[in-house]
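We modelled the chain as a single entity of 184 amino acids. Its sequence is:
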Amino acid sequence: MSDKKDISLLILQAKKGDQKAFNDLLNLYWKDVYRFQLNKCQNEDEAEDITIKAFAKAFDKIDSFDDNFQFNTWLFTISSNLYIDHLRKKKTETISINKNHKEIHRIVDEDPSPSDKLIQEQNLAQLKAYILQLKPHYQEVINLRYFQELTYKEMAEKLGEPMNNIKVKLLRAKKLLAEIISSK
């Protein structure tokens, strides 16, 4: 789907709010934007965070995209500007004692009824094992959305992040989880 007409169609659909189009654009450009950030940051976590923010901002501002330009150029400009902002913030950032401590959230298994437990036990255990292979911040968004059943707004408030960042993280987490499952 690298044809210019197909990309233009995806952008048009995304401007209309089509979630599949957003997902397709994310899948199409994720590796390039992430690699671009990784070359700049030399840190996988920072590169991933900036890439998530870049897609969130791009998707939030998709209506302002001018079709006379290439989408990837626009996306890389957003990504580059976010990297510059990241550098500025890093220079003025004060270090917190707890900065490097990250909690790993394990998925709590609510006790289902005995008959449900027999049916679901094996599949749920396998799913949890797959989820635990994700990075902690992806485990957390999967847990909040699908196991605690929080809305995007509730997740954004709980994590202290913009809602679009949460949506992009969840899309990425689902994609990574699907890759893990399909590789087994």
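As a brief sanity check on the tokenised model: Confidence is low (pLDDT under 50) at residues 94-100, 103-110. The first helix runs from residue 4 to 15.
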